[in-house]
Amino acid sequence: MSEPLWLIPLFFFAIAMGFFLGRREGKRRQRRRMASLSQEYVAGLNFLLNEEPDKAVEALLSSLEVSPQTLETHLSMARLFRKRGEFDRATLIHSHLLESGDLPRPTQEQIQLELAEDYFAGGLFDRAEEVLLEMLDQDCEQREQVTRQLMKLYEQERDWPNAIAMGERLIKGDAKIAPILAQYCCEEAEGQVARGELGPARRTLRRALGFDKECVRASVDLGRLEMREQSWEAAIAAFRRIWDQDRDFFDEYLDDLRQCYEQLEQEEDFIRVLADYSAEDPSTARVLLLSGQLKERYGDREAAKFIAEYMQANPSVRGLDRLIDMNLQVADQSEAREQLELLKQLTQRLMSDRTIYQCRRCGFTTPLLQWRCPSCRRWGTIKPRSEGDAKS
């Protein structure tokens, strides 16, 4: 019994040596794997730098196992490809991530959103919609973000009913969506009018005002729809609503308003409305219309006097141009007429060079009113330049 006792320390020594040697060999194998991985990864980067993206993707996918530790590397590479417009390669990486590994559900949803963005950026709207709708069906955790992506996608496709439907899912948590939905309604109403669906168009425009009571575009479109239907009083109500919504737009539609009153043979009411608005908040456009009425009733000199008095307090190029016109008609001396005609040429040049619409967000300027800024892509940010901007 005593002879085997000396073997006990030797037994433990052998176990320790085996563990040590095994661990060292394991580390060697790990270093070899890491070296191989490092070489393949560096090779992938070299392929990318040498403009060989297909080989770069192949090297990346073969060198890096999908795991939480390598996920960001895959995503960064895919975003790089998408930024460069190489959407098919970005799609390949994201699809590989979804097919490989055992990633947590939030991570899988993040990858699905990235994949939908690949399809969207590449113009494959049907594929993007398929991915996003599948996420909604699965009751995903990132439901709000998926809904916003779908809203953006339907907007891009000009599928206004579905864009509105997606927006309505978000409006309770984000009131800023409401003015955008009003613009969507106006876009849908334009299509309905073009198809001759005037009743549905009227309801859609009223729905727009339900989303955003300050939507000038809805009032304008509704006013012109009522004019088309010869519903003059309803048209007047729509155009006069603009005064309370945004006065900067009101003068843009004075001619429409004037036509409505003329159709009802209520020119006196129009003059009274115009005078009330001008007294509350004067503008050159309204004063020029009033001066036209004065000209018809009292002649050129009285009208010119009226404009001159207004111009002393509110100088503008348009007002000066009208004042010159009226004085040209009553000027007797040839020298005076010659000077007025030179001034007339100057004011015409100033007005023709002037851009009158500007985006409040990015400063983009345009000679035509657009309801969505072509530069910053914001809805409802372009407005007529204020009276002060047009002064000289």
Tell me about this structure.
Strands 2-1-3 form a three-stranded antiparallel sheet, with no helix packed on it. 72% of the residues lie in helices and 2% in strands. It starts with 6 loop residues before the first helix and ends in an 8-residue tail after the last strand. It is built from 19 helices and three strands. The protein has 392 residues and is mostly helical. It has helices at residues 7-49, 53-63, 71-83, 87-99, 105-121, 125-137, 143-156, 160-170, 177-194, 198-211, 216-228, 232-245, 247-250, 254-263, 267-280, 284-298, 300-313, 317-330, 334-352, and strands at 357-359, 365-366, 382-384. A hairpin with a 5-residue loop joins strand 1 (357-359) and strand 2. Helix 9 packs parallel to helix 11 (216-228) and helix 15 (267-280) crosses helix 16. It is elongated. The longest helix is centred in the N-terminal third of the chain and has 43 residues, at 7-49. Residues 5-16, 33-38 and 387-392 have low confidence and may be disordered.
Provide tags for this entry:
elongated; 3 strands; mainly alpha; 19 helices; 392 residues; three-stranded antiparallel sheet; disordered C terminus; single chain
